[in-house]
TrEMBL record:
<feature type="transmembrane region" description="Helical">
    <location>
        <begin position="336"/>
        <end position="358"/>
    </location>
</feature>
<feature type="transmembrane region" description="Helical">
    <location>
        <begin position="402"/>
        <end position="419"/>
    </location>
</feature>
<feature type="transmembrane region" description="Helical">
    <location>
        <begin position="296"/>
        <end position="316"/>
    </location>
</feature>
<dbReference type="InterPro" id="IPR036259">
    <property type="entry name" value="MFS_trans_sf"/>
</dbReference>
<keyword id="KW-0813">Transport</keyword>
<feature type="transmembrane region" description="Helical">
    <location>
        <begin position="370"/>
        <end position="396"/>
    </location>
</feature>
<feature type="transmembrane region" description="Helical">
    <location>
        <begin position="146"/>
        <end position="170"/>
    </location>
</feature>
<feature type="transmembrane region" description="Helical">
    <location>
        <begin position="177"/>
        <end position="194"/>
    </location>
</feature>
<keyword id="KW-0812">Transmembrane</keyword>
<feature type="transmembrane region" description="Helical">
    <location>
        <begin position="264"/>
        <end position="284"/>
    </location>
</feature>
<dbReference type="Pfam" id="PF07690">
    <property type="entry name" value="MFS_1"/>
</dbReference>
<keyword id="KW-1133">Transmembrane helix</keyword>
<keyword id="KW-0472">Membrane</keyword>
<keyword id="KW-1003">Cell membrane</keyword>
<feature type="transmembrane region" description="Helical">
    <location>
        <begin position="231"/>
        <end position="252"/>
    </location>
</feature>
<feature type="transmembrane region" description="Helical">
    <location>
        <begin position="98"/>
        <end position="126"/>
    </location>
</feature>
<dbReference type="GO" id="GO:0005886">
    <property type="term" value="C:plasma membrane"/>
</dbReference>
Length: 430
């Protein structure tokens, strides 16, 4: 059996996997570039009142299509050649990026929101495809490594896209427009090299009622207790990540006075941790799909969240702004950084084997549709988690961000027991 490093290196050289890897990387970079460019435009260039609400609206506009259209994407991917479908979506992305470029040139929020919705639609349709095609492009003993690389690339692209989007506000609109189009064109060109696949369900008729289709896919996923429990576990990871990413910047700013450089560094540590944990999962697995470590990874996520809250709850509110060197020279800053890195690394170790197990055991003719159902479940958990957090933060309840981090950590420690009972006792045989 090849070593984990050898498998990772072989996949990155493979003509079957590398085009999908770079297509996903560029697409994730593109999405986050536009999202953060819109946020920075609202904050710094347009001077809109109610900026917070407008930025939250942008997040909702991008995420909403995942809840509505993932099922449709899964049906199309199962019924068609997945590579051909990917090329069609990436071709459409060029047109959407052109719309974003027009919106930037006009400094028009409605046009930029329309472009962001278009990117959300493409992302929702592409999501089931990119995961369902992996088992068709590689052997079973490469699945964990393939998922690890896709997850690492996704979070690296998110980080780079956020940074590039933030920096775009200081550049000329013309240069940013050129970059928008170059990214979209590069994503399309990489999609041309994704190998064609056979139709998983050639007789499948796409359901026109997308709500009935989505409900049907969730019901199909629930019929398999093993896949359902793994999907719940994966969705918990995405909910924890979304809530932690909303709490941590506020904690850092309020308790340490971290400036923009500090906030960017913390985001970088989160992305680095997810990537490191994902790659570590591949190295540990050595071609196997092993779920026995999932409860311990969930426990680690919970403990790091608790420590993040405990270490900052008693700190006084920051009264001065703190730069990068000062932040990392302080005990509080180092502890926050270690907690963020530990949380993210544990998350990567947790989610990669679970998703590989879902892909491996999903029936081939249903794989894209079941992945779509998992994506809908992920989005539902994220929306519920973020909404609950917002309610607990409201003036009516008024829980602080450190307390909320502790609460989320305690819930995640308890969730580790669910993973131990319902997921880990059923390891995937290889």
């Amino acid at each position: 059996m090849p070593s984990g490093l050898a498998t990772l290196a072989a996949l990155m050289r493979s003509r079957r996997f590398a085009p999908l890897f770079w297509c996903q990387f560029l697409s994730a970079f593109n999405d986050n570039f536009v999202r953060n460019m819109l946020a920075m435009l609202i904050l710094f260039r347009l001077g809109e009142t109610g900026a917070g609400a407008l930025i939250t609206l942008a997040v909702g506009i991008f995420v909403a299509p995942t809840l509505i259209l993932s099922g449709l994407g899964g049906e199309i991917a199962d019924a068609q050649d997945k590579a051909r479908f990917a090329r069609a979506l990436k071709g459409a992305e060029i047109a959407v990026q052109a719309l974003a470029a027009i919106g930037l040139w006009m400094a028009s929020l409605p046009v930029l929101y329309a472009a962001l919705f278009g990117l959300g639609v493409i992302s929702a349709l592409f999501g089931p495809l990119k995961y369902a095609i992996l088992p068709e492009l590689m052997a079973r003993d490469q699945l964990v490594a393939g998922n690890a690389l896709v997850e690492a690339a996704t979070f690296a692209a998110i980080l780079l896209g956020l940074i590039a989007g933030g920096l775009s506000v200081a550049r000329s609109p013309a240069s940013t427009m050129l970059q928008l189009m170059a990214i979209a064109l590069a994503a399309f060109l990489t999609s041309l090299f994704i190998p064609s696949t056979a139709r998983a369900a050639p007789g499948l008729l796409v359901t026109h009622n997308i709500f009935a289709s989505t409900a049907g896919l969730i019901a199909e996923l629930r019929r398999d207790a093993k896949l359902w429990s793994r999907s719940i576990a994966v969705s918990w990871f995405w909910m924890v990540g979304a809530v932690a990413l909303s709490l941590t910047p506020v904690i850092v700013r309020a308790k340490t006075g971290g400036d923009i450089a500090v906030e960017t560094a913390i985001s970088a540590l989160f992305a680095l941790g997810i990537g490191a944990g994902s790659l570590a999962a591949a190295l540990i697995a050595r071609g196997r799909i092993i779920l026995s470590g999932a409860p311990f990874a969930a426990l680690g996520m919970g403990l790091f969240l608790i420590d993040l809250g405990v270490s900052t709850a008693q700190l006084p509110a920051a009264t001065t702004e703190t730069g990068l060197l000062t932040f990392f020279a302080s005990a509080a800053g180092v502890r926050v950084a270690v907690d963020v890195l530990g949380l993210a690394s544990a998350g990567g170790l947790f989610v990669v084997p679970l998703f590989a197990a879902i892909q491996a055991d999903a029936p081939p003719a249903w794989r894209a549709r079941l992945v779509a159902a998992v994506n809908v479940l992920n989005s539902t958990f994220i929306v519920a988690g973020v909404a609950a957090t917002a309610i607990l933060q409201s003036a009516a309840i008024g829980l602080s961000e450190p307390v909320l981090s502790i609460l989320l950590g305690v819930l995640t420690v308890a969730f580790a027991l669910y993973v131990r009972r319902c997921v880990a006792p059923a390891p995937v045989k290889t």
